[in-house]
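Memo to structure team: turn this sequence into structure tokens by end of day. - J.P.
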Amino acid sequence: MSAPDRYVIPGDRAFPTGMALDPRTGHYYVGSAEDGTLYRGHTSRPRATVWSPDGTDGRSFTSGMMLDGEGRLFAGGGDTGTLRIYDTRTGWLLAKLNGTPGGFVNEATLADDGAAYVTDSFRPVIYRVARENGRWTMKPWLDVDTSAIDWVHGQHNLNGILALGPHLLTVQSNTGQLWRIDRATREVTEVDLGGHRLLSGDGLAWRDGRLYVTQGNLYDNPGAQAQVAVVELNDQLTRGRYVSGLVPPEGFQHPSALAIDGSASRLLVVNSQFNRWQAGLPPLTLPFTIATVPLPEK
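Reply from structure team:
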């Protein structure tokens, strides 16, 4: 039986944003920007269902999401400045952590030191989340103002983040720049993309030397097409080459998060319509969906 070519997120005002896929079970989790609802689906079934209703544990907004190897779900709280950690086996809330006041706690990635690194799109900080002495902590780890990153207050800055060996990669939505961060020294350098910019860059995924970056149209750039950008990077993650833009036949509706479904060699991409939500507009199309795109051969 073939897997569905798209997945439906229920609700006329869902505005799904973040997503995390568990490759061991085939379950995926998606969160809502409208009210913080968490949905769960399976890659073999065409429709997700509510896993944790809006308002649970005080949750009212969901941004980026991540699963760790123990099945714990990290759910960013966007402009509520929070991060929640759940046990997906029981649904229990393990921790609610607070970022810098006025921030937008966004995307998370798990590094090989066992810690998660989390971006804040509105405050110049990257957090480190770890379990210390039996309790979870989220502490400022990088002061972005002291780095090479040119922060623009009032805009979505750092967004998607990805741990690759000793480094972190993060995309800056408002400028389209890609940054490499050395976790040992915290040195930040721009990845040379030969002049190419990943404007409105959001979710990041990695496979076989290629970085996949969702690009919506948050800033209404004239002529910009929503796509998943494919960028080949060298082994040192210092230089990259834009290869192509992936778009399904039906197009994207402001793609946000993405995940690699290795069992089917494809990408799962959330059609968030976040640009409509941010502008206070109704969704352009219903139902809300997760699109699928085959991974290109090298």
